[in-house]
Recover the amino acids of this structure.
């Protein structure tokens, strides 16, 4: 199982072919892909057309759904954020540290196309795909 970040889903739904979207396409055929509540919000909020929203929701509803935060992971996310700050890393989006923390604590690799996850891989042990 893997978690696919919204950065990959957005490219995927927009028909952008990247190494990551190719990996996502393959994973969708071969093994379970996790969609978290936080990622689901990020992806679905971007659709302007109701028909596109419905089609995307139908696909995303077939994935393994997991809640990504909760009290314990909220605290752990804050701890990870503080750890990175002490290392001199500025986390630009709080949502990214929450996604990374979920993946770390769940021992699930993250498929992403967002350079902001690199320090989390380096300093927190986030496993990534590709």
């Amino acid at each position: 199982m893997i978690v696919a970040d919204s950065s990959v889903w957005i490219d995927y739904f927009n028909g952008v072919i990247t190494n990551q979207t190719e990996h996502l396409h393959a994973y969708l055929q071969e093994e379970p892909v996790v969609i978290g509540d936080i990622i689901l919000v990020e992806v679905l909020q971007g659709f302007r057309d109701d028909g596109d929203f419905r089609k995307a929701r139908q696909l995303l509803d077939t994935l393994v759904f997991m809640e990504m935060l909760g009290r314990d992971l909220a605290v752990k996310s804050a701890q990870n954020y503080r750890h990175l700050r002490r290392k001199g890393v500025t986390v630009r989006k709080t949502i990214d540290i929450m996604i990374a923390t979920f993946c770390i604590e769940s021992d699930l690799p993250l498929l992403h196309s967002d350079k902001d996850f690199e320090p989390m891989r380096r300093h927190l042990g986030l496993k990534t795909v590709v």
About this structure: Strands lie at 2-4, 33-36, 64-66, 110-111. The longest strand covers residues 33-36. The helical segments are 6-13, 19-30, 37-44, 50-60, 70-86, 94-106, 118-124. The chain has a mean pLDDT of 97.
